From TrEMBL:
GO terms for biological process: regulation of translational fidelity; tRNA processing. Its EC number is 2.7.7.87. SUPFAM superfamilies: YrdC/RibB (SSF55821). It comes from the Bacteria. Residues 22-208 form the YrdC-like domain. One of its GO terms (molecular function) is L-threonylcarbamoyladenylate synthase. It comes from Cnuella takakiae. It is found in: Cytoplasm. This is Threonylcarbamoyl-AMP synthase. L-threonine binds at residues 44, 76, 130, 150, 190. It catalyses: L-threonine + hydrogencarbonate + ATP = L-threonylcarbamoyladenylate + diphosphate + H2O.
Length: 334
């Protein structure tokens, strides 16, 4: 075994490590085969990876993130042909979506096979399955020789990581290895699609825009409501949140005018004039929703490190990735 683990805290299964960041895929795969969690890059966000078929390794993921066991995980596979290894009863519509969008930022909620550990699905009858497009993630899954669960590599409800530095800031000492694949190119979690009465339903908007899904599956429905029962990952009403309060608004100036304390602003496309703050960030100077999505979590990490008491975030246009940006910011608002 590679060195690094100092102790294991009994039933909580939180280990103490000297966390290393590197590019050694073989080393990362060895840690996974030994039942450890490591951080891996994907095109969406960095994931906290572990052997999906090892219940003890899956339990370490929940403990490391401090994630409740009622919040299920996504199983990551390297090749679309492997979907039948973890799911059954796959509909023609599901296979059509895979044909168009996998590998990529699409997660499908499918009837699980019996050998999938209950801990992965939180005891629910469906398993969330994704095929990451990131070449390092694909290489790691193949090298490890197993499907991987990989929720975002952060503390539960905190800001998702899109760089190795983001992971280290939250999980230093909790995992042995961060596999460095550079900054994430999509920057938002995957879009999750399931089926109700054989009709496709979007449970979580994400890096795959609704418009792209509608072009392949006309009439796809959006599962509205932040307080629906949790049937898929990422449905908790408080998520992706900085340590300091965040206000989401269409009118940044109006909110800023009510504040006496120092604040930072996350603008969609341009700096606002006349605000009493030196701290303004812009997600996309070109007004591009894909670029804004890619920069969102980095901006939130940057803003929460500033000497301010509140973050004001501007609502994005409700098109393309803008829907997912607003979803993340609305869940982060507190």
């Amino acid at each position: 075994m590679f060195g690094g683990m100092a102790y294991l805290c009994g039933r909580n299964m939180i280990a103490q490590y000297h966390t290393i960041t590197g590019t050694d895929t073989a080393r990362a795969a060895q840690y996974l085969r030994e039942g450890h969690c490591i951080a891996m890059p994907t095109e969406t966000v960095y994931g906290l990876a572990a052997d999906a078929f090892n219940p003890e390794a899956v339990a370490r993921v929940f403990a490391t993130k401090e994630r409740p066991a009622t919040n299920p995980l996504i199983v990551h596979l390297a090749d679309v042909a492997q979907v039948d290894e973890v799911a059954t009863g796959i509909s023609d519509t599901a296979r059509l979506l895979l044909q168009h969008f996998a590998p990529g930022p699409l997660t499908l909620l499918l009837p699980r096979k019996a050998h999938i550990p209950d801990a992965v699905t939180s005891g629910l009858p469906r398993v969330a399955v994704r095929f990451p497009a990131h070449p390092v993630a694909q290489a790691l899954i193949r090298a490890a020789g197993m499907p991987l669960v990989a929720p975002s590599a952060n503390r539960y409800t905190r800001i998702s990581p899109t760089t190795p530095a983001h992971v280290l800031a939250q999980l230093d000492g909790r995992i042995p290895y961060i596999l460095d694949g550079g900054a994430c190119t999509a920057g938002l979690e995957s879009t999750i699609v399931g089926f109700e009465n054989n009709q496709p339903v979007v449970y979580r908007v994400g890096a795959l825009p609704l418009e792209a899904l509608e072009a392949v599956v006309p009439g796809i429905q959006l599962a509205n409501g932040l307080h629906r029962p949790v049937v898929a990952p990422g449905m908790h009403h408080l998520h992706y949140a900085p340590r300091i309060p965040l206000t989401l608004t269409n009118d940044v100036a109006a909110v800023a005018a009510t504040l006496q304390e120092p604040y930072a602003v996350i603008n969609f496309s341009e700096i606002k004039q006349g605000l009493n703050t030196p701290y303004q960030l812009v997600l996309s100077p070109q007004g591009d929703t894909a670029e804004a999505a890619r920069n969102l979590y980095a901006a939130l990490h940057q803003a929460e490190a500033l000497p301010v008491s509140r973050i004001i975030a501007e609502v994005a246009p409700e098109k393309g990735e803008g829907c997912a940006i607003n979803d993340r910011l609305s869940r982060a608002a507190h």
